[in-house]
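worker-03 picked up job from queue 'complexes'. Input manifest follows; two sequence lines, order preserved.
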Amino acid sequence: MRFSNLIKIALRALNNNKLRCFLTMLGIIIGVGSVITMLAIGQGSKNSIKAQISEMGSNMIMIHPGTGQRGGVRQSSDDMQTLKEEDYTTIHDNAKYVTAISPQVSSSGQFIYGNNNYPSQLQGVSPDYLEIRQLKIAEGSMFTDHDVTTAAKVCVLGQTVVDNLFPNGEDPVGKVVRFNKIPLTVIGVLQEKGTNSMGQDQDDVALAPYTTVMKRVLAIDYIQGLFASAIDENLSEEASAEITALLRTNHKLKDGADDDFNIRTQQELSEMMSSTSEMMTVLLGCVAGISLLVGGIGIMNIMYVSVTERTREIGLRMAIGAKGRDILAQFLIESVIISITGGVIGVLLGCLAAWMVNLFAHWPVQVQLSAILLSFTVCTVTGVFFGWYPAQKAANLNPIDALRYE
Amino acid sequence: MTDREIIKITDLRRNFRVGDETVHALRGLSFTIHEGEFVTIMGTSGSGKSTLLNILGCLDIPTSGDYLLDGISVQKMSKPQRATIRNRKIGFVFQNYNLLPKTTSIENVELPLLYNATYNARQRKERAIRALEAVGLHDRLYHRSNQMSGGQQQRVAIARALVNDPVIILADEATGNLDTRTSFSILTLFQELHARGRTIIFVTHNPELADYSSRNIVLRDGKIISDTINESPASAREVYESLPKEED
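worker-03 finished. Artifact:
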């Protein structure tokens, strides 16, 4: 028996019942289509979260003072004053895995220009901060290390602050705004970044040299935190270990003593957020998988009916020389053809649906090759698996009984 | 008729178990059919003629006794081997035609060759066309089975039985579903095939048909009660031509 002959036989048989064939396929089409669409939506949202995180700087490391005990009383981390400027210089000078580092001190207050005022945060940072947070200057320039040394009264404004202080579209660069009572010369404007995935306005910010904020605004001698960049995303572990070691030496912590600071990498955050969307993907995938299963049962049902209906035909085929395994192969091939054709149409339809979701609902989608391969494999397996029982039944028919079947 | 023995059965028995009872369908049949014979096998229902036909057609195996088909012993064969024997040596014609629905004549006739890997697509088509020409359907090659009359469908079925060039054609009540005139046209076709040297076994319960064959075997209760040679069979064509054409 030639395999090509078997395919020809199966195709002719399917051709005789086009409508039924199509209806059976529909189950698989919907199943595969929904798997593709659901996984595309899941993957799309995962990707957009990832993109947003890497916008913030995926290799970013945040160091904050840790909660600690002072005489048995637990302190809030805001009150801890464990991080000093020399911690910054130590890391800046010694850490190998860190490409950029900036201290961070912040103060909320009112910005005033002319008769406009706007409440925002003044962040005291070093020029490295731009690189760490992936910020860009749209107009003017960033302050320099020299401004940091001299605690210059300069600032760089975020777009939201600019919009509120200069509603008439004046050029803010070179103007003097006041933060609380301190006059600061605007030397630059940050490029707009929009809201982040948490819904925070990333443009509602103003930057000034950290020395300016420490000495002139807050009058403190400690820093509230440090931002650093690891060489790349995969080296953030090493970088944070290195920083931990340097800080422990600096703080003269004994072995076994708790760290008096916290290090968080952006990677942890991104893992946390992508695990949420991963769960959603799995959930959507499950729902779609169930519809694929239902489609498979549809195939089995139809193949079963078709075996019964075609009993006489099977008897005839056996009488003219078909072996049991030829009949088995014929019915298996029929169900595999149904499921694979359904799978192909389903993949196309799924891609189309994903594209429409993107077009009309503006959800981020990404059709994955792995999802296509997966659902393709699944539907072939479905065809064989659910076609097997009816095919076996057909192959085991007694030709005499089958020929006389009414 | 030549000396080549197409079918040789000796003391053929077939028992069926129905519940606790054993039914003896065939009780020791022996006969030999030579190449070129046109044998009718007759009997009322329950005489065992269907059981005999199933065994002769290698669809069933005897409980005891020998069956040689074209010199090959059949009863020891496995199921797949018997399927191959059916494919190469036997042509079946059934009462209800058993054509594939919605399928063209050519495709129906090609069917046995699809289960024989030695033919390629071109050879299959050639042989199918030749078989259809042999039954007078050269102008119905691409008609579908549901577009044809009963007589035409039976001709397609006969072409299908001829296409693998079998040593024997087994017809089971092949005229049972047809009106008298069409019956005689089919019978004429069988006589023509016989005249061209085909070996035919025609199983029927209709005693009239014995006049048109070269040999008649009558079964009753699983035994042969008569086996007669008909030296001068009547011509089915004459009867066919004498019958009035149906006026619609």
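worker-03 released lock.
The mean pLDDT of chain B is 91.
Chain B touches chain A through 27 residues (CB under 8 Å).
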